[in-house]
Structure formats: structure tokens, C-alpha cells
Amino acid sequence: MKVILISPPNSFDKSPSLPSLTLATLSGILKKHQIDHICVDGNLMPSFEKYKQNGTGNQVILQEITELVMNYKPDLVCLSLWGVSIPFAFKLAEQLKQKASRLKIMAGGIRDTYTANYILNATTDIDYVFVGEAENSFPKFLHHFIRGNETKKITGVYSEASDDLVRTAPIESGLSVTPSYDQFINVDTRSLFVETSRGCIYQCVFCGLHYTPYRRLTPQQAVEHIRSMKTKYDVGYINFADNFFPMKGQWISQFLELLAESEIKIYWSCLIRADNIDKAIIKKLKPAGCVGVFMGVESTDNETLVLMKKSRSPERYIQQLSENIGALAEQEINIKVSTIIGFPGETKKSMWSTARFVKNLKEKGVDAYTGPLVIYPGSALWEQYIRGEIKLNRIQHQTIKRNQSGMFHECYPPDPIISPNDFIPENHHMSQTELESQISDILTFVG
């Protein structure tokens, strides 16, 4: 039994790529079960670096990965997907099936059954689709696959489209799999993603993890995991992949103290909430190796924050936001801030309030950004779109057309599942043309 794990290249992000944590987690499962495999992260391939520089070379990357697969001669190909990489996966699966019709191909990384149904309806070249986290379903699937047994009864694994698909696979109770980078091709492990938790305690309606419960390692387990990665892979920098990294409470206090007191010398960054920060914790960040934080602020308008379910106390949220950015800057922690404009029900006034906030931060040297709302499958807003409560329109304004839907997206009809960045929700306060014009003006203003 031989398996090849593939993460298609992600043309949405032009920044330097870290090795795929998803592939590393699946590799840890395969390693535990002693199954021969290799990992191919499309973002780490030399040909993809050329693509990021000039935007050409789709076919070169596709051919390069195809040849890797055919030379390895696997029994199973596993594709780790998210929306924008689906078109590339379709093309890859098509080429592989043309060369080896009996090869089995599965796709994972899918969080909702709408995307699973889309894939199974759109192509016959992908044999299985995994929905939800795979720590439970993947080993069960492998057990049955190796023995040639039926896999249809495994929860979260699907081989045909159906409106009756359950929403997700069973949630893993903990983070029990140790990621492995031993079988990666073209990998540099000096910078890695590390996961100390999954899910989130908040319910922001735009987030694709809206329905995912929160689980985390203990502070001791988290530090030991970092020590293991440092020892095995000589990691110098960690980007915590946690969707919610707390900055107040006993967990973070113990974690920072343990890390600072350990022999582990490592730099790291994380994603934090603007209103979940303790001033005393901020002073402990730098001694523990923290060099940067990413803060999803989203808006500075009271009504919009409530609509987003970002905060029930928007006035307090905005006050804490300003105070905490200042406190982080005093400790020389690099700060990145992101905001959203074009939220359903948002007004011109609220969008420009956020725009001025971002502009002010940039003038102070903070790496701040704003951009049009993207509605991702799996989010509460997506559910509203499916129910017909929100209408999505394809972006027409040339200055805000993102065209970042992924390689080969032009080969398939526009759809919010595979090209969510090319759509924007309808706004009842203004026409589509006016909305896009306002967004264009704001992007120019912010710079």
C-alpha cells in the first residue's frame, strides 16, 4: 500500500509559504499505521515560486506534480483542498485518471456538504470526499480500503452526491496526532505551523469555523509539542495555526511562563482577538519569544460589529482595541490588523469609519489592511446564502476584481464555492455598482 498526499498550490497568497500542517497531520496518521507515503506541497515547489513571480506556469506545475505521482506509483492519491484550489485538483485528477484509470483519488479539507456535493457532481475523477476533521475517519477509511471493503458507511466519507449528507464527520476529542514532515518533498522545516488548539469559543458569522467546538492542549502539552518540533526539525520560527489564541486567563499565563523558563529558543506569532487581551500577559510575550500578532478587528462600527456577532459590547470592544494595539506596540510586538468592508447591511458611513481607522494605523506604522467581505462555505453567512437570505453578486469593478480564485478557475463556471473571492453580498443600502464604487474608493484611500 502506497499513498501520496498532495496540497495543490494556492495562488491566493503570494507570501512565502510554510509547509502544510494538514499534510503533516495526515502523514502522522500514515506513519503511525506504517503505510508508505510521500507528501507533495504545491506551494513549496520551485515551479510555483516562478508562478508567484509572473503569474504563468499553470501547466508546468500541473505536469510536475503529475509526473511525481506517476513515478511514485501510489494506490491512493489524497488531495487536501480548500475552495480556490478545487479547479487545480479537478485538472490534476483528470490527468491522473487518463494515465492510470484504476488509481483511486480522494479529496479532503472540506468543511461542508455543499462543497462535497459540488465536487462529486462536477467530476467523476475524484472517488471519495472527506468532510470535517479526518483523525477518526481517515484511519477507518484506510483500514477498509486496504482490505477492499466497502467505505460508504464511514461517517464523513462520501463517494456520491446526496442532499442527505451529514454536515461534518465526528469531531476529534483532542489533538492526538503528532504531525510529521519526514516524507515531504522540497521542505524547509526551519519555519512551521504549530497547532495547540482547534475551533473557537466565538461565533463570528463570517468565519468558516463557526460550528467547530473549541479544544486545546494543556500548557504543558503545548510546550512539549514545541520542544519536540524544535528537537526533530530544528525549527526557528512558529506560526501558531490556532484560530483563537487566548491572551488572557490561566492557560496563556502558564504557557508563556513555561516557554520562557524552558531551554527552547524559538520565535513565534499568533492570531488574537482585539478584546481578549490582558495587559499583564502582553508584558510576558516578548520574553517567551513572541515577535508578532495578527488581529482580526473586522470593523470599527458599532452596528456592524453586532451584525457580525464580533462583539455584544461594541463600544467596549473599540476602546479595548485602541488600548491593546498601543500596549503591544510598547512591547515591540509586530502587529498586523485586518478589517472587512461590504458586510450585508453595512452603510457608507460604517465602511468609511473602518477605512479611516485603517489609514490611521498605517500612518502609525502598523501593517493594517481592509478588503471586501468574502463569504466562505461553512460559515453562518454561507448558510444564509443557501437559504436565500443573502444574494451574492460577482464583482464587476475592475479595480477591486481580485481574480484570485486559483489556477484553472477559468475552466469552470463562476461559483462561490470555488471562487468565493470573486463574489460580494448584495447590500440593501446601495446598488451593486455604488457598493463596488465605494469599496474601490476606500481601497484607494487606504493605500
List keywords for this structure.
447 residues, alpha/beta, Rossmann fold, pyruvate-formate lyase- activating enzyme, 6-stranded mixed beta sheet, 37% helix
Q: How would you characterize this protein structure?
A:
By secondary structure, the chain is α/β, with parallel strands linked by helices. The protein has 2 domains: 157 residues, Rossmann fold (3-Layer(aba) Sandwich); 253 residues, pyruvate-formate lyase- activating enzyme (Alpha-Beta Horseshoe), CATH 3.80.30. Helices cover 37% and strands 17% of the residues. The chain has 14 helices and 16 strands. The strands form 4 sheets. The chain has a 6-stranded mixed beta sheet, with helices on both faces. Strands 7-10-11-12-13-14 form a 6-stranded parallel beta sheet. The longest helix is centred in the last third of the chain and has 17 residues. The chain is globular and about 60 Å long. The N and C termini lie far apart (53 Å).
